[in-house]
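Lab notebook, bench 4. Continuing the backlog of folding jobs that were queued last week. Each job is logged with the same field layout so the records can be merged later without manual cleanup. Today's entry covers Lipoprotein, a 245-residue chain. Filled in by technician R.K.

JOB TYPE: sequence-to-structure
TARGET: Lipoprotein
LENGTH: 245
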Amino acid sequence: MNPARRPSPLVLALCLCVSGCMSLTPQLQPTDFAKLETIKDRAEREKALKENWIFRHEEPQGTRYTKGLHPLSTKRSWQSLDAILRSEKNSAEALPYKELRRSRILAALGAVTGLLFIASGAATAREGFDFQKLNGANGVMLGSVLATVGLAIAAGVYYRRAEKGYARAVNIYNDSLGMRLGLLTPNGDYIPPADAAVDAEGYILTEDANTRIEEHSRIRRRVRRSRRRRRRTRPRPRRTRPRRR
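JOB STATUS: finished
OUTPUT FIELD FOLLOWS
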């Protein structure tokens, strides 16, 4: 029997690119939604929302993501969102599988054409490249260069689409997390506590409705008094009549 051959590193790299898996990238911890839905206390649900929320951080190298706002948490790229977004049904369905797979396939083909360019360049190193007299090796080198550039551009386009798709999936994950905890409406609006005082625009004034109403009326009185004082102390502009010529 022939001994089993070990696959070359090039074949392994191409398989990883085409498969589209992100197991080599450190992933954010998936969320246990079944456990979160059993929380009854309002304060605990608020805490769980902050700990499992995906936050965005604008860095010089691009947008980075963290789960929660722990000071020691590492800010990671969008490739690290695969596991946590798959843990929620709605965000998992919104993942751009096709765009990511096409981007990786085109990147793998671009790597192959790049190797053809290197091989053809080594084959024609002695003769040189002549546009007027193209032979087989020169034609392969020219075609591989054009194919590599075209595949790289196409892979970059699908890569950007996949990144935007993951950003949309993050919004869906956060909305679903808030809805399951009973803290957000389907429109993404925050649901205040039952005993909270809310103004006409929906902003929470305080947790205690009775106390806040009295304080709010006092603040309004102070604002009105300060406005009256400003009007009294403000100098009136002098009216000047136009001179007759």
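OBSERVATION: Confidence is low (pLDDT under 50) at residues 9-13, 209-223.
SIGNED: R.K.
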